[in-house]
Design goal:
The chain is α/β, with parallel strands linked by helices. It has twelve helices and ten strands. It has a domain of about 210 residues: Rossmann fold (3-Layer(aba) Sandwich). The chain is about 45% helix and about 15% strand. It starts with a strand and ends in a 12-residue tail after the last helix.
Length: about 325
């Protein structure tokens, strides 16, 4: 039967659609009329127009579907209005879960984030980690609230599996992780802070969602995280692939001042800051999660970090986003 993907025009949603198409599943994508759908149509996806804030459009789109992948979300660490973000995440998720429950959809996969794990500083988070109780970003707070809504629907009998991707990178990434790499390689970054980041390649995220639908246990979380790397190690690999010079490790207090000042300037320029305050807070806190449960229970296979990063850098070069030809393109 047909599967429905919300958020299919987004970075993660497109990866899910591509993974579904590789296994031959008929795919339907709920999209707004203003969204770019050409790539999805070339893949053979059926486009139906609607909005997750319009519950009836979800009900109509789910007709004849046996699986819902709810990946629609707003994601950034700058420029998002708190009220709009919370409404999209919470009301949109409520509508999607309610529509799936009314349609008796056999399986629902909800795309959360590993940021919602909420591990303490220096701790490696797992699916059973208790959230620390405070948030490094509005996005994290919204996703925690959305997960609570999803779990309430599990209690109502809706067969939902939750997927928690770490920082997703890969070709097409122009979100915070991608912008951080581009700014670094293009010489816009003043320095880096000590810390850790957990990452996962986009294709692994798409495949992980499909495996979660097939093998995931109802009401369970599955973290998708292929690598946890120190920030300086991440950028050293990036330097080797691009030929960009390494930036110095900066004191946390200095980067805090820098983030505050450039974010203030961005309020006037309307351009994303090189380092937003929420990005700084997340980096300074550190982000470390364990993606091994998805390997054991779902059969996820993670792309080696340098391989994924090389493909990402080459895509940036092909799109004209790098000032200088990267070393790996020679």
């Amino acid at each position: 039967m047909t599967v429905l993907v919300t958020g299919g025009t987004g970075f993660v949603g497109t990866a899910i659609v591509e993974a579904l198409q590789r296994q031959g599943s008929p795919v339907r994508v709920l999209a707004r009329r203003s969204s770019k759908t050409e790539h999805l149509q070339k893949l053979g996806a059926e486009i139906v127009y609607g909005d997750i804030l319009d519950k009836q459009s979800l009900v109509d789109a789910l007709k004849g579907c046996d699986t819902l992948y709810h990946a629609a979300a707003l994601y950034d660490f700058w420029g998002l209005d708190r009220r709009t973000l919370m409404r999209t995440e919470c009301e949109g998720t409520e509508n999607a879960m309610a529509a799936a429950l009314a349609a008796r959809t056999p399986k629902v996969v909800y795309t959360s984030t590993a940021l919602a794990i909420g591990e303490h500083k220096g701790e490696v988070g797992t699916e059973s980690t208790k959230h620390r109780g405070y948030f490094c970003s509005i996005y994290e707070a919204a996703k925690v609230a959305s997960e609570n809504i999803v779990m309430a629907y599990v209690d109502k009998g809706l067969p939902v599996v939750i997927v928690n991707p770490a920082s997703v990178y890969g070709p097409g990434d122009l979100k915070p992780s991608g912008r951080a790499m581009l700014d670094f390689v293009n010489g816009k970054t003043a320095g880096i802070v000590r810390g850790f980041n957990s990452l996962v390649y986009r294709d692994d995220v798409g495949a992980g969602h499909v495996l979660a639908a097939a093998k995931g246990k109802i009401g369970e979380r599955y973290i998708l995280s292929g690598n946890t790397v120190a920030l300086d190690a991440w950028f050293k690999v990036l330097c080797g692939l691009t030929g960009a010079p390494m930036k110095p490790l900066m004191p946390t207090w200095f980067l805090a001042m820098f983030a505050a000042s450039v974010e203030m300037a961005s309020r006037f320029t309307r351009r994303p800051p090189v380092l937003s305050w929420e990005t700084f807070r997340t980096m300074a806190h550190g982000f470390q999660v364990d993606g091994s449960k998805a390997v054991r229970e779902l059969g996820v296979k993670y792309t080696p970090f340098e391989d994924g990063l090389r493909r990402t850098v080459l895509w940036y070069w092909e799109q004209g986003l790098l000032k200088n030809k990267p070393a790996c393109a020679a």
